[in-house]
Write a structure and sequence with these properties.
The chain has 7 helices and 14 strands. With 367 residues, the chain is an alpha+beta fold. The N and C termini lie far apart (99 Å).
C-alpha cells in the first residue's frame, strides 16, 4: 500500500513520456551563423518509429509541375512563425515573413532495398513507411532578416546532417524495369543560389511558391491549396480565383500538349531563362509569361552554347524537334550538353516526348 503513490507517479510519468513521443516536435528557428548540424534540431520533420513526423504547424504542400530531379519524389513543407502570413506580390510571388522555413525532402520508394523511379506519390506523410523508402536529402530555405539562405542536409540513418559542400550519393535505381547505378548529386550551398538568385539583387527566392504552381487541389481534400492556405491564415492579398494562373498538373493527364510543355519549361528552365535572371543575356526566355516565339527560341540561334548545340542552328525549329537545340539538350546527359546543367544526370523521357510533340505542332519555318 505504501508504494501506491510511487507507482502512480511512475504511471503518470510513463503516460507523459508516451504522449511526448507522439506529440509533434516544436519548430526551432536558428539565426544565420548558428545553423545546427542535425536536421532534427530544426523540428520541421523527424524520422520517428519508421515514419516521418512533421513539426507543429508545419504544412505540407505540392506544386503542379515539379522540377525533375532524377526521378526523386519530394515532400515539401512550409512553416511560418505564429501570427504571420505570406503576402502576395505582383500576382505571382509571395513575400514570406522573416522566420519562415521551407523544406523539400527528396526520397525514392524501394523494393528489396533498391530505389524505384515512380512518377508521383499521394502526399500522405502519415502513411510513409521508411522501411520501403530511401531518404536522400532535405533542403531548407530559411528566411533571415537579410534574406533567404539555402541549407542542404544529407540523410544518414534516422537523421540528416548539414552538408554545405554538397555530396554525391551512389546507389542503384530502377527506371522502367532497368536497374543502373546513379550518382545522385546533392547541390552545394552556392549551387542552390545559382538557381534561386535574381539578377537585380542576387537575392535568393523560393521557386515553387508562386500562384501558378500552388493553384491546385490540396492532398485529395477537394479544396484548392491556395484557399487552404488562406483559411489557415498563411496567405494574404490573394485575388479572386478567376485571376489565378495555373501550370499543368503534370500527373493529372488532362492538359493539352502546349500547356504541358510550357509548364514543364517554366518549372524546369524558366527560373534561369527569364528576363530577370542571371542568364538573361542568352535571350532565351522559357518562363510561362507571354513572350514572342523568337524569345522562346523559335528560329533563334544560341548566344553561346559550345557543344551544347549538338550541331543544330536554332533553339527551336518549328515543326522539327529533331533539329532543335532545346530538345537535344533536354535529352543529353553529358555535363557540357545537358540542360538544366544542375539537378539531374538522367533524362526525363516523358518531358522530352511532350516538348517534341509541342515543337512538331508549331507552324512556320526558319529561313
Amino acid at each position: 500500500m505504501a508504494n501506491r503513490p510511487v507507482l502512480a507517479r511512475l504511471a503518470v510519468g510513463a503516460v507523459a513520456a508516451i504522449l511526448a513521443a507522439c506529440a509533434p516536435p516544436e519548430v526551432r528557428f536558428h539565426a544565420s551563423g548558428h545553423y545546427p548540424e542535425r536536421l532534427s534540431d530544426w523540428g520541421v520533420l523527424l524520422a520517428r518509429r519508421g515514419g516521418l513526423v512533421l513539426g507543429r504547424d508545419v504544412t505540407p504542400y505540392d506544386v503542379n509541375t515539379p522540377l525533375f530531379m532524377d526521378h526523386a519524389l519530394k515532400l515539401r513543407t512550409v512553416w511560418m512563425p505564429p501570427g504571420t502570413a505570406a503576402e502576395l506580390v505582383n500576382h505571382a510571388r509571395y513575400d514570406m515573413p522573416v522566420g519562415t522555413v521551407l523544406s523539400k525532402t527528396f526520397f525514392y520508394p524501394t523494393e528489396d532495398g533498391i530505389a524505384q523511379a515512380m512518377p508521383a506519390w499521394d502526399g500522405d506523410v502519415a502513411g510513409m513507411d521508411l522501411d520501403s523508402a530511401r531518404l536522400v536529402e532535405t533542403r531548407l530555405l530559411v528566411r533571415q532578416s537579410s534574406g533567404w539562405d539555402a541549407l542542404p542536409y544529407v540523410w544518414r540513418g534516422d537523421d540528416a546532417y548539414l552538408s554545405l559542400g554538397g555530396a554525391i550519393e551512389r546507389f542503384h535505381l530502377v527506371v522502367d524495369g532497368a536497374t543502373a547505378g546513379l550518382d545522385y548529386v546533392v547541390p552545394t550551398r552556392n549551387e542552390c543560389a545559382s538557381c534561386h538568385a535574381t539578377k537585380a539583387s542576387r537575392e535568393l527566392l523560393p521557386l515553387g511558391i508562386v500562384t501558378r504552381q500552388l493553384n491546385r487541389g490540396y492532398h485529395g481534400s477537394g479544396d484548392n491549396q491556395l484557399d487552404a492556405w488562406r483559411h489557415r491564415g498563411l496567405l494574404n492579398g490573394l485575388p479572386g480565383p478567376d485571376e489565378w494562373p495555373r501550370n499543368a498538373d503534370w500527373h493529372g493527364g488532362d492538359s493539352a500538349t502546349e500547356h504541358l510543355a510550357r509548364s514543364y519549361l517554366d518549372a524546369n528552365c524558366g527560373h534561369c531563362h527569364n528576363p530577370e535572371s542571371v542568364v538573361d543575356t542568352t535571350g532565351l526566355w522559357l518562363d510561362y509569361a507571354t513572350h514572342p516565339m523568337r524569345r522562346m527560341g523559335a528560329c533563334k540561334p544560341p548566344i553561346a552554347a559550345g557543344r551544347g548545340t549538338g550541331g543544330r542552328r536554332y533553339s527551336i525549329v518549328p515543326g522539327q524537334p529533331e533539329a532543335s537545340i532545346l530538345t537535344f539538350r533536354m535529352a543529353a546527359t553529358h555535363p557540357s550538353e545537358r540542360m538544366p546543367e544542375l539537378g539531374r544526370t538522367l533524362v526525363d523521357r516523358r518531358a522530352v516526348a511532350i516538348v517534341e510533340r509541342w515543337i512538331a505542332s508549331l507552324p512556320g519555318t526558319c529561313g
